[in-house]
Amino acid sequence: QERPPIGGPYKTFIPVLEDIESAAEAGQILDELAEEVGSDRIYESDEFKALFDRYEELQQAENDKQKAARKEQSWTICANLGIAEGDQVAFRLHEPYSRWSPESGDMAGTVFRRGGAAWIRLDEQYHAGTDKRSGIPVSSAIEFLERNGEPIEPYWSTGTEDPDDAEEGPVNLDRRQWWKYPWMKAVGRKDWELYLDESARLLAELGVDPDDPRVVLSPRNDSRHRVAIILHLRNFFSLNHHRDQTFLGIQLSEKVPEDLPLEPTFHFKRPPTNRIYAITPRAYREHRDRLFPMIVKAAREFLPATGKARQAVHHVPDIGRMTLDQAFRKDALDHILSGEGDWPGEDLPSMDMGDFDRIASQFKKEELQLYLSLVRTLMLQLDVRPGDERTALSCAMEDRLSFTIGNRYTLVLSTGEQRYWFLSSEFADDPRIVNDSFKGSPVARHLSTNEPEALFGQWPHVLTGARRELERTNSSKYRKYNHP
Question: Averaging pLDDT over each range in 132-136, 415-419, 454-458, which range is the top one?
Fold first, then answer.
């Protein structure tokens, strides 16, 4: 290729300036030239001015692009969590954002718009002794806890959060064979048929099918003792079995006829301020003609025209098949209730959960919770769903849990000398961090540390590096090991 008008010759190859596509590429050429001819000559003479100007032009363009992306991503994070401008939120901060912010811990504030991005204006008690209305970017909050007084459920649950759960039980992360949950056998076939028939009717009335991105059909985990239809952000219709009693959970408006045999179990504080009511299958059958239109009305008023359900990670397609396919339903219920035949559906795509449990047991509970929280936060900030073929959360190795983008480790919890490994766009100037690099393009750094706070300080560069990996890859070879 033709060289630009730069003196020479040099061992370092200098392409036509217009062919240099990234600041990283231009910076690498400048670094190589600096080693060859000396940094003073590179940065102080006019000989390399055109190359340096190209580097600054590309760097500014990338900075502008990242700034715009951060603004957009801040509202994407809010949308994924069901947070809107003006909402009151409680969240967790792991490091100070500025001298006006507290050192760390749980705090609260109001979501507002600053420079086009989503920020949180801290409540007065968190102003660290100043009289300023302190604010931090939404992206700086590693973990959100509540929205307008209601708990915000993470992608990977570490306990029972739903208020309509009658009792808390052990967390069962194994959703691959959900049809083996013991409580399901205690529900009679007649009640199963009622729930599945009414679920099909509800979805049909709303004009959606079970695979609509706004719909989640899920048993979630064994401790919840329920199967639910979740529309966008809320549970609207569920089959529950607690303390040897089967009942349906239905969401209706606050004002319902007093003669209906409904037991209120939960009140939503955020509009629409509906309630979840419990009712026995027998009573529901008797009052179905009155209740069903009320359920449809409440669901129709809440369901947005477009979008994705926040709990999409928990969707089980086979439950959708059970609502619509009578032959599949019969075989599925035969297997659930009496163990007849093989399961007619499919396992959820996942590693064997025995492997996950075995590897996860090597870590302290606090380490595991922090790691999964970081993975969840990264996915939210990248607007990546668990079903994205470019990513995987895997336990393919005996000594680590790994979140990968493409074929590169992005966040790792390891049993090795360095507990936390992470991808970064830049080296870290922190004695607590060990710097290394990935081979190949795009340029990316492979960092490790034993101090979570050191990782938090590098988080903006983790996001930048992760976005670059997403842009260049279509799938991850580790997807076959993915744990949903």
Answer: 454-458
Categorize the per-residue pLDDT at 313 as very low, low, confident or very high, splitting at 50, 70 and 90: low
Mean pLDDT, range 316-333, rounded to an integer: 92
Task: List pLDDT tens digits, range 143-185.
Answer: 677 777 776 643 322 233 333 332 223 333 345 678 988 899 9
Q: How far, in Å, CA of 105 to CA of 95, rounded?
A: 8
Tally the C-alpha atoms within 13 A of residue 188's C-alpha that lie toward its C-beta.
Answer: 10
Q: Which amino acid is at 78?
A: C
Please name which of 222, 219, 218 lies closest in space to residue 172, comparing C-alpha atoms: 222
What's the predicted TM-score (pTM) here?
0.43
Asked if the bond preceding 219 is cis, omega within 30° of 0, the reply is no
Tokens of residue 467, six digits: 């976005």
Domain assignment of residue 62, given as a range? 17-77
403's CB contacts (< 8 A; 6+ apart) are: 375, 378, 391, 392, 393, 409, 410, 411, 412
Q: Is residue 160 part of a domain?
A: no
Domain boundary residue, one of 338, 364, 384: 338
Selection from 306, 318, 145, 143 nearest residue 232 by Cα: 306
| For residue 36, pLDDT beyond 90 | no
Which residues does 240 contact at the CB level (< 8 Å), separation at least 6? 164, 166, 225, 226, 246, 247, 248, 249, 278
Give the range among 26-30, 388-392, 408-412, 413-417 with minimum mean pLDDT: 26-30
Q: Are residues 69 and 96 in the same domain?
A: no
Cβ partners under 8 Å of residue 26, min gap 6: 20, 51, 54, 55, 58, 59
**Within this chain, do residues 330 and 182 fall inside the same structural domain, yes or no?**
yes
**How would you class 245 by CB atoms within 10 Å of its CB: exposed for 0-12, middle for 13-18, buried for 19 or more?**
exposed
**Same-domain status, 328 and 182:** yes
Residues 123 and 211 in one domain: no
